[in-house]
Specification:
Helix 1 packs antiparallel against helix 2 and helix 2 packs across helix 9. Strand 2 and strand 3 form a beta hairpin. By secondary structure, this protein is of the alpha/beta class. The protein is built from 14 helices and 14 strands.
């Protein structure tokens, strides 16, 4: 019933958004005399803000057409190189890349947003790397005939993707970069591949704002997961996909619930952002208003994740702390982090991260006891929140150069 009620509300709001958008356009029309009255711009701006907030959204496109590097401009190629039921592997490249450019797998979170949330991450790393991205599918679009997708499957997908990328001409595997939630399965995959001496194990693993050990500086997200029993999440966070979608009948954690949770954590900031957007529209500062709109176009584009993956993540990452406790298994095999002895690990945290607290990602460096200190590095970035770790000016100018340097130092 929850999902059906949400769909009804979304349908009503879509109609209201369309009417509000038409009203805003009418009031902004130069030939309309009311557009020049004192209340005209205010009403038009208010309708514009509402129309944007209530508009339905689908899966965004990466939309890379070109990349500017120095004084040169290169066309960007985007292709799907491997398709699987719950995710596809995308490859980005351009003609300006050197022949020996490092190959980098960027693992996007499966946490209610699409991989395009990492658009800024991909574009910045694409300057000097051949970039691959895990483009996860919206679970409501996957028919139940395709089976389930859990934490074990997530790890299997990562191994398969690394195998598909393969070795370069020197016999080296690709590098891996995990943003937030996938840090746990990425570290687990690196441990499994290291234990098997898999030739395609990552040369380096960069984890940014990842919940490796959520007992360190617990945030509101961590506290909520610990205060409620596992049965509460089963009863209150899981819904059934309605009949109008290909995945009808599949049990999921809906993306709109994840979005509501994130919005409520910083409701004051989001309200101020929309108030500022309204003021920019009133004063005719369309460029600033469009910047806010672009952010929320991506932020509000949400997708569902399978119930089994969500519930396992809550249980093993936030409640049992299975990976740091040494009890996490993959298809019956214990994940041994001490098996990692040649995968260089870079842990990056933001000083103002309110989702993954300080020390949660750094814990990976303490747990990989057989990895030499020369292959470990920790970066705490001042005045950076969770999303600033992988997007924005500080990511581009301060964090990305550190990642590039780390990958370059361990590319042989």
């Amino acid at each position: 019933m929850l999902y059906t009620a949400y769909e009804m509300q979304r349908t009503y709001l879509a109609g209201a958004s369309a009417w509000a958008n038409m009203g805003a356009q009418l009031l902004n029309n130069p030939s309309n005399p009311f557009a020049y009255l004192g209340g005209g711009p205010i009403m038009a701006s208010a309708l514009d803000v509402f129309a944007h907030a209530a508009a339905p959204r689908g899966k965004p496109a990466f939309g890379f057409e070109q990349i500017d590097i120095g004084d040169e401009c290169f066309a960007v190629s985007e292709e799907i190189v491997l398709q699987k039921p719950f995710g596809q592997l995308k490859r980005f490249a351009h003609a300006g890349l050197q022949e020996d450019a490092p190959r980098l797998l960027i693992v996007a979170p499966m946490s209610g947003h699409f991989a395009t949330l990492l658009r800024g991450t991909v574009l910045r790393m694409l300057e000097s790397h051949e970039v691959y991205v895990t483009d996860w599918r919206d679970a409501r679009q996957v028919p139940t005939s395709e089976g389930q997708f859990d934490l074990d499957d997530y790890i299997d997908y990562l191994v398969t993707y690394m195998e598909h990328i393969g070795l370069d001409d020197t016999g080296c595997g690709a590098h891996m970069l995990a943003v937030c939630q996938p840090s746990v399965p990425c570290l687990a995959a690196a441990a499994l591949m290291s234990a098997q001496r898999h030739e395609c194990r990552p040369r380096s693993l960069t984890m940014m704002g990842g919940p490796i050990d959520t007992r360190e500086a617990p945030t509101a997200v961590n506290t909520m997961a610990m205060q409620r029993p596992h049965s509460w999440f089963q009863q209150n966070a899981i819904a059934t996909v309605p009949m109008q979608y290909p995945g009808a009948g599949r049990k999921v954690y809906p993306g709109f619930m994840q979005l509501a949770g994130f919005m409520s954590m910083n409701l004051g900031n989001h309200m101020m952002s929309h108030w500022e957007m309204f003021k920019h529209l009133v004063t005719g500062d369309g460029e600033s208003a469009d910047s806010t709109k672009t952010f929320y176009d991506e932020y509000r584009s949400v997708c569902d994740m399978t119930a089994e993956f969500y519930l396992q993540t809550v249980e093993h990452v936030f409640q049992k702390h299975s990976l740091p406790n040494g009890t996490m298994e993959h298809r019956g095999t214990l994940i041994d982090l001490t098996a990692i002895d040649d995968v260089a690990i870079l842990a990056i945290e933001g000083e103002k991260d309110d989702i993954s607290g300080i020390g949660q990602t750094k814990a990976a460096l303490m747990l990989t006891t057989n990895l030499d200190d020369s292959r470990k590095r920790y970066e705490l970035v001042p005045d950076v929140g969770h999303y600033g770790i992988f997007n924005g000016s500080k990511w581009r100018t301060k964090i990305a150069p550190v990642v590039e340097e780390w990958i370059s130092a361990h590319n042989a």
